[in-house]
Amino acid sequence: MLALSTSASAHGERPEFTGPPGHGDELRAGFGQAFDARVVYEVMRYRTELRLTPQQETLARDAEDAWAIFRNRHIQTRTKMQADLTAERAKEVMDFESLLRGVDATRIEVQKAYEQSRDRWLAFYRSLSPDQKATLSKLVRSRLAQIDAMRERAINRVPAGEARP
After folding, report:
1. What angle do CA 104, 3, 23 make, to 5 degrees?
2. Contact between residue 3 and residue 74 where contact means Cβ atoms under 8 Å apart
3. Torsion sign, CA atoms 139, 141, 143, 146
4. How far, in Å, CA of 160 to CA of 151, rounded?
5. CA–CA distance from 115 to each of 4, 19, 100, 111 (Å)?
6. Where does the pLDDT of residue 30 fall: very low under 50, low under 70, confident under 90, or very high at 90 and above?
7. How much is the CA Rg of the chain, to the nearest whole Å?
8. Are 118 and 62 in contact (CB under 8 A)?
9. CA–CA separation, 100 vs 74, rounded Å?
10. Is 32 left (phi over 0), alpha (psi -120 to 50) or beta?
11. Which residues of 87-123 are buried (b: 16+ CB within 10 A; e: fewer)?
12. Which of 3-7, 25-29, 117-121, 159-163 has the highest mean pLDDT?
């Protein structure tokens, strides 16, 4: 279905940054969203190395906030969709038309939040100097290689109790 996670307050507080995406949810949501999530997390990790100006810091915070709202909106809509499905399953005759209309409405809502997040990240990215972009590329490339290596090790891990081939 969809996927995201974080918390954002309706009381004007900054949404909490909760770290990298988990459990492959963003991968199921689509490459663009998975890439977005990873870049957000990596920029958070490398702020010192990027030596952001005060204006860039503000743009980065705006982008993080928009990303957190996007992730939170996804959790809320996913939870609602799961509750709707549970309610339908309890009925004698399930209303699949209603379920599908709900899925469509959710996709539209989450897509709008994603586009707002993406636009804020692009504004931040455009504010970076060529040297900052090169530094960010180098750092993210290195980190993604580490993540790929960890994923490869996890895939090749033999479950406990099984013999290696």
Report:
1. 155
2. yes
3. negative
4. 18
5. 14, 20, 22, 6
6. very low
7. 19
8. no
9. 17
10. alpha
11. eeeeeeeeeeeeeeebbeebeeebeebbeebbebbee
12. 117-121
Q: What is the pTM of this model?
A: 0.64
Which amino acid belongs to residue 118?
Answer: R
Structural tokens at position 151: 């994923």
Q: Token pair of 114, please?
A: 């994603």
Would residue 15 be called left, alpha or beta, if left means φ above 0 and alpha means ψ between -120 and 50 degrees?
A: beta
The amino acid present at 108, given as its one-letter code, is I
- Residue 95 tokens read as 């209303």
**Quick check: 118 and 36 in contact, CB under 8 A?**
yes
Per-residue tokens: 82: 């799961």
| Interatomic CA distance for residues 18 and 92, integer angstroms | 41
Q: Chain-centre distance of CA 160, in angstroms? A: 32
Length of the chain: 165
Token digits of residue 155 = 């895939």
